[in-house]
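Support reply, case 0932

Customer input (verbatim):
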Amino acid sequence: MTPELPKDKPDFRKKLHDLPHRPGVYIMRDRLRRVIYVGKARDLRKRVSQYFMASKQRTADLKTLALLESVWDFEWHTVRSEPEALLLEGKLIKEFRPKYNVSFRDDKRFLLVKVEMAEEWPRFRLSRFKREDNARYFGPFANAGALRQTLHFMRKRFGILTFGRGAPTERELKSSTFQVLAKMSGVTTDLYRSRVEEACGFLTGQSREMLAELEAEMHKAAAKLDFERAAELRNMVESLRTTTAPARRFTRHSLPTSIDPAADLLALKDALSLASPPCVMECFDISNISTTHVVASMVSFRDGVPDKANYRRFRIKTVEGQNDFASMAEVIRRRYSRILLEAREQAERMRGEPLDYSPEYSQESPSEALERLGRNIPHSEAARLPDLIVVDGGKGQLSSACKELQRLGLHDLSIIGLAKEFEEIHRPGRALPLRLPEDSGALRLLQRIRDEAHRFANGFHQLLMKRRIAESILDDCPGVSATRKQALLKRFGSVARLRRASPEDVAAVPGIGPRLAAQVLEYLRDRDTQRSGGKGSQ
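Our regenerated output:
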C-alpha cells in the first residue's frame, strides 16, 4: 500500500534549531522522499538556515527558488572536518545524482596517491581511480593543491621519486629536487625502499615530529624577522596538516547519524561506566597560538546541548611562556575554587550556614557538602559541580587537572582527557586510553563539546589580539610613554573608548594633562583619517 503523501509543507523552524554548529553535509528531499540536493557546510546550522530566511526568497535565482519550492524535508550528517564534508558530499552526489546538483555528477574523482611496490624503484604517482592491481593507494585527498605541495615536500625530505618509471635518471640525481638521493653515494634499491616506507608512513599520518620541526623552524624565522620564510613554512605546515590528517572513507552503510543528545548521553554513560548520564559537562581548552596572550576557555553542556550562559574564559596569569600543563592546572584551580567559594557565600546568604565540616558531616567531601547545602537553594542560583569534566589533551593535561582537583578535595569528580589526534580518551588511573568507534554517539558528544571549547578559546584569543593591535597605535603617539599608555588603557579600557572621550576626561588621567590630552586625541583623529583614505570619519 502506498503511504499517504503529506498535504501541507512542514515547518522547519524547530528542525533548523536542532542543527549543530559543525561541519557536515545536508540532504534535501522532495515530497516523494527523493533526494534532490546534497550540499556541504563548514557550519551546518548557518548554512542550511540561510536557505529558509525571508531575504533568500527575494534574492535567490530561479534554480534556488525551484529547489526551495520542492524541499519537504532535510537531514544532515556531521563529520570531523571540512575536507571530510567535501569527500562525503561527492560520495552522496555520485550515489543519488540529485537533480539540483551539477558538481560531482560527472566521472571526476578526488586525487589518490599510488605507489606500485612491485616496481624496482617505486614512485609516488597521482591517480583518480583505485584498481585491484596490488599497488598501495593513499587518499582520496580533497585539496589537490595541498597534496601537490606535500609531494613536493616529500621529494626533498625523503628523496622519493614521482612520476615516470624505472631507476632515477642522471638528471633526477643532479636536480636539487632530489638532493637527498644525490647525496647518497651508490644508492641501492633497498636503501631507497626504506625511504619509500618512511614516506608512506608520513602519508598515513605519522607526521607529528616532522610537523613540530617545521613549526619550530617557522618560529625561528619569524624571530629573525625573516617573515617571507616564516610565511612559506606556515603555508607548508598547513598543507601537510591538510594532507596527512586522517579522513574516513564513507560507504552507503557507514554514514554518521544525526545528533540525538539524550541517546548520546546514555552512550557516554555506558562508555565511561558512570553512575548516571553526565547531564552537566564542562570542557576546558588552552589557546596558546602565541606567548603574548595565552588564554583558556570553559564551555558547559547541559543535557547534551550547549549552555552558553555558563561559558567562561580565562587569561592565564601565573604561567610564563607556552606550558599547556601548567596553564590547565591554573584554570582548573581557578574554576573550582571559585565554585566552592560561591557555594559558601550562597549558604551564608540564603541559609545562614557556612560551608564547613561540622561533626555531623565530618566524613563528607567538599562536593558532598556542596550538594547537601544546595538542596534547598533554587536550581538556577545554586553553585553546582559538573557531572563530568573534559580537558582537551592527553595524559599530561589530565594529570595536571587531577592534581588540582585533589588539592581542592574534589578527587571524586569524574574527569577525562580527550586527545585530538587519534580521539583517545584518557582516564585517571588507567594506563591505556579508550578508543570509541567513529560512529559512536558518545564520541560525537565529546567531540562537540571539545570543538566548542576550542572555538570559544580561539575566539577569545583573536579578540585579545585585535585589541593589542589597536592598542599599538599609541606606541607611535608623541609624548605617550609606556607608563602613560597603560594609564590611558586602564582608565578607558580600549583605544575605541579613548577616541570617544572628551579632552577633559583624558586630561584627568594621571601623567597626561590638558596639553598632552589634546595631542593624543588629535593624533588618533589623524590616524582615523589616514586609514579611511583621507575622507575622514563618516
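We compared this against your earlier run and they match. Two observations from our side: Residues 95 and 252 are 8 Å apart (CA to CA). The two ends are 67 Å apart (CA to CA). Please reopen the case if you see a mismatch on your end.
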